[in-house]
Amino acid sequence: MNRFDKFLKTCQSNSVKFIAEMAGLNFCLDAWKEHCKSQGKRPKDLNIAAQLMRRIHIIWGKYNELLQKSHLNILARSLQCLGFEKLAASLNSQIAEADKEKLAKYSLGIGAVRFQLQYMGHYLMRDERTDPDPRVQHFIPDTWQRELLDVVDNNESAVIVAPTSSGKTYASYYCMEKILRQSNDGVVVYVSPTKALVNQVVATIHNRFSKKLPDGLVVCGVFTRDYRHDALNCQILVTVPQCLEILMLSPHRQAWTKRIKYVIFDEVHCLGGEIGAEVWEHLLVMIRCPFLALSATISNPKHLTEWLQSVKNYWREMESAMDKSTTSLASVTCCTNKLQKQHSEKKSCRVRLVLYGERYNDLEKHVCSLKDNDVVLDHYHPCAALTVKHIEKYGFPFDLAFSPRESIQLYDTMLNSWPEWPRSHEFEPEEFNCFKNNITIKKADARKYEADLKVELAGWIALGQKDKVNHVLESLKPHPTDSSEHEMYRRFPLLVEKLNTMGKLPAIFFMFNIHLVEDVARILFQSLKNKQSSKQNPDTEKEIQSLKNKLSKMKKNIKKIQSLDPKKQTSSKLENIIATLTEYKALKKRLAKLTEVPPDCTYANSKAVDEKTLRKLLFRLRKVGNSFKQEILAMRGIGYHHSAMWSKQRQFVEMLFRMGYIRVVTSTSTLALGINMPCKSVVFMDDSVYLDALNYRQMSGRAGRRGQDVIGNVFFYGIPLPKVQKLMKSNVPELKGQFPLSITLVLRLMLLAAKADDKADAKAKVLSVLHHSLLSFNQQKNKDMLKIYFIFSCQFLLKEGYLDQEGKPIGYAGLVSHLHYHAPANFALVDFLTKGLLHKLCQPVKKGSAFFSEDVMEKLVLVLAHLFGRNYLPACYTKYKKTFCQSKVFLEDLPEEFAAAVKTYNSKIENNFGCFLLSAAKLADMEQEYHLPLSKLDFTGRACEESDLASHLMKSTKRITAISPFACLPGMMDQDLFNIHNVNKAVLRTMGVNASNAPILWIEKYDHVGRKRPLNAYALDFYKHGSLKALCEDNGLNSGDAYNLLRDFSLTIKTIEVSLCELCEDENDNVVLAFKQLAENYRTKLHKV
Fold first, then answer.
1. Among 38, 85, 898, 972, which residue's CB has the most CB atoms within a 10 Å radius?
2. In whole angstroms, what is the distance from residue 898 CA to residue 668 CA?
3. CA-to-CA distance for 256 and 685, rounded, in angstroms?
């Protein structure tokens, strides 16, 4: 049947397909009859019946207009064989009674609707369009996909929310193709959340597009922090948000930004993250061109679309004003035809919302537990995650979907819980309105049944049947056995073997600990190796070693033989040579046979990749560390994936997994965002705080490959049931926006406004960032608070000498801007420069020399490590202080003068920030301030007024205008806000501001029990010994993580060096020379590893 389905996919003629389908129906019918005869009274394999009914579905749904009476008779007979008498009679009313009796032995014994829902729900046909779209060559797009193409054709913007693998990314490549066709000047920017996704998109673009361009121009460019290639001379730029922001805020890159015709934001829900969310927001409000914002997990897309529409309306007004100014100037200067054409281009400011919530494949969940020496898989019905209280208060979560068989399961459970259910007959599958008298059931009908069941169950609560609802929910819950975490990981190979036996591979196993990801992969590999060893003859290992030794010795002789000229050799020598070569080949063949991995000792699919391709991929890993470990894992069909790996290692696993060779991958969340790694099953193995509603939906969305899997599977292994319930019923957090401003950003905006080539464009961008934050959308108080913060930022920049009286950047503004990644350490560095501390430190070996001693270099690295290499260790690490060999591990304290400067800097920030909090306090919602944040208990009522203690505290003469009422209890006052350590405890919470909004450089950090956490000395340790291996061993770092940290630190030193060279008029300044030497030294050491 698989070969038959492949033929149908390649066949272009409908009439031929119809004939083939009828032949397939007859084959399935004969197979079902034969199976029933062979089974007798034993249970039947209903998968055969499902295949028979599937053929009926396809013929009735796709070729209805080609059906003739003879064909209808065959369909009727097939339905009759399955026992669906009513359906058969609707096609052929003249069925003989004798036939009925004869065919009764083949009957399934259940109703047609119940059978279709319970046993072939994954085969139910969808309402798909059959009319081709000339814009799409390889498939027929759905209605919502055509809307995306219309958006691009009309130069509109769109927010697109659709499940993973639904086909929303196709619009991105259609957009790229359109811009490439239009001209050689237009640019499309693809914004990806991670560097791993950047690499994948670039590979796809190179594979899909090619174009002849003038010299100096290329189709695709890349821009990430550590890699930049053809960024400004390409037509498709693939980048990360932070790098595009650099270009958008660069005063001298405005001409390039005006060439941008479309921006594609992939995984735009990152706008709601805690780290880097503000950068996404800045980009969305600064771009003038249309955009596509893609995501699978946005809970309030309408709100997001309204905000983006308001931004586009702003740009329409600003562009209209700028166009008038340009037109006026052009009338005087007689602008060129090219400029006139540019003005005549039609632009649309419309932002569409395109929603599509239907997954192509259903997802079914299972919880795993250990019993005896086996892994037990219990089906987890989505309703098992709910409670009566949750349904009563919130209803059913909008994305809590059932598979058709889960709908049947819910109906049966409802009927068992309430036998006298008044409406049970209406919901009986064979009697339900959408199903009754239909030959076949469609997916949309099953969804209607699911929706009505949900409404009915919620309605029971309104009827006062809470106990019965609770009984339904409790009856659906599985009861897995508990096991220790250690035991779960030790038995992990049993789980993989179980999934393999059930046909549930390929699978991705998600964890959040890098070391655990690698360890679990090794445990699985060792299990397969032990299994193979147990099957081998005890002497096999000795024979293998003996063969390896012989081959090693013979290899030298073979090299000599290959260098000889056969024509110059005697016949006896030639015979010896032939004998040696024959023996060598025989030994190699014998060794290959002995070391061959049996099929049941590997998860690799050897048919998926040919030997040549596999060798080519392995060759790419030859110079990468630990490549041998990955190679031996891959040979067993196992891989692991995390952020600390080298990019080539990750790509190796990704490619082999997509090809189907590797079928087991353990991974962190690196595969959750956008990477094209669809699989049949997803397994959650690590109960981490990072496993939240958003990550759960992103990760589980990988399960179920469209066109390959009929259903996706999600397994919970070692995850407590309460956590599973929370994940399934919790909605994804709404996108409300993060605090969008920082002092560094304000300075960058000032630089753009002051130094831009196009002042009007720069001013419009600056005002857009300041006026259109998501946080302040339709929130006037938040707008006012951001205005006050902007004033606070300007005052600080003015006092510290970064702005002059007219607001123009001066002094070290450029250096601070270049180091915006590292705020507030960038301000502290400038403080060291202005106070002469770095000049005092950077003294050459002798006057007039350009060379600095190692002692000076090490002290400079120590200072920079405190600013730009702040990696904190747990407090308990200090007890291992004497066990390290080559590294100090714990960073020494800052030199006294530098520490005093940081303290003075922090004191100034505290005073300025305290004044800001006092000014912004009037914007707080005081009514909400008297409610406890979680319980919402109100302390403004009569009981509080009658309390002597409350009255005393509220009528106190102390100044508490900016202090939370609950923080007044321990005696806090307004003046306590001038101590940054008190801010989070005392500030009015409805202000939406906390200590993180102050650019404080924390010298010390403490854990939750008050222990000081030491800083890691990785940057200084590496500079001293230059060994990545020693650094990893002593500091407990993964090699990939360690290298990334060192590379970032080296890039920071280089950035400082370049900025100082631009700022300093004296090229022989000691600080400039010292940074040049340090940058070169660090780069050289890093290059060696």
1. 898
2. 39
3. 46
**Among 583-597, 649-663, 804-818, 900-914, where is mean pLDDT lowest?**
583-597
Q: Where are the beta strands (DSSP E) in 500-641?
A: 507-510, 638-641
Torsion sign over Cα 104, 110, 111, 116: negative
- Which DSSP string do the residues of 441-500 spell out, in sequence order? -BHHHHHHHHHHHHHHHHHHHHTT-HHHHHHHHHHH---PPP--HHHHHHTHHHHHHHHH
Write out pLDDT tens, residues 486-534: 888 889 999 999 999 999 999 999 999 888 999 999 999 999 988 888 8
pLDDT over threshold 90, residue 95: no
Calculate the CA dihedral of residues 700, 706, 712, 716 and round it to 10 degrees.
Answer: -30
**Closest by alpha carbon to 536, among 629, 601, 603?**
601
Cα 974 to chain centroid, rounded? 43
The average pLDDT across 837-859 equals 89
The conformation of residue 428, written as its DSSP 8-state character, comes to S
Reply yes or no on whether the pLDDT at 1066 is more than 70.
yes
Residue 665: strand pairing partners: 508, 639
Question: 740: closest CA among 769, 709, 702?
Answer: 769
**Sign of the torsion formed by the C-alpha atoms of 428, 431, 433 and 434:** positive
Q: Is the pLDDT of residue 342 over 60?
A: no
Question: Which one-letter amino acid corresponds to residue 796?
Answer: F
- Nearest Cα neighbor of 407 from 703, 90, 114 is 114
- 501's CB contacts (< 8 A; 6+ apart) are none
Q: Residue 541: enclosing H or E segment and its boundaries?
A: helix 540-563
Does pLDDT of 667 surpass 90?
A: yes
Whether the Cβ atoms of residue 284 and residue 311 lie closer than 8 Å to each other: yes
Beta-carbon count within 10 A of 153 CB: 12
Q: Is the CA virtual torsion 64, 69, 75, 79 positive or negative?
A: positive
What average pLDDT does range 241-261 have in this prediction? Answer: 92
CA 1061 to chain centre: 39
Pairing between β-strand 664-667 and β-strand 374-380 as defined by DSSP bridges: unpaired
CA angle 564/569/574 to nearest 5° reads 90
**For residue 1037, pLDDT beyond 90:** no
Do residues 123 and 57 make contact, with C-beta atoms less than 8 angstroms apart?
yes
CB 881 within 8 A of CB 873: no
R_g over Cα of the chain? 35
Provide the CA 597 distance to its chain's centre, in angstroms.
35
In sequence order, what E strands does 691-782 have? 711-717
Tokens 């690799």 correspond to: 604
- pLDDT given for residue 327 in this prediction: 59
Burial 261-290 (b: 16+ CB within 10 A, else e): bbbbbbbbbbbbbeebbbbbbbbbbbbbbb
Burial of 806 by CB count in 10 Å (0-12 exposed, 13-18 middle, 19+ buried)? exposed
Number of continuous H segments (helices) and E segments (strands) in the chain: 46, 15
- Nearest to residue 284, comparing CAs of 311, 314, 255? 311
| Ramachandran area for residue 395 (φ above 0: left; ψ -120 to 50: alpha; else beta) | left
Lowest-pLDDT range of 175-189, 547-561, 698-712, 786-800: 547-561
SS3 category, 702 = coil
Evaluate if residue 340 carries a pLDDT over 60.
no
* pLDDT at residue 771, as a whole number: 92
885: buried, middle or exposed (CB in 10 Å: 19+, 13-18, 0-12)? exposed
For 684-699, the DSSP string reads E----TT--HHHHHHH
Sheet order of strands, 374-380 included: 374-380, 362-371, 711-717, 681-684, 507-510, 664-667, 638-641
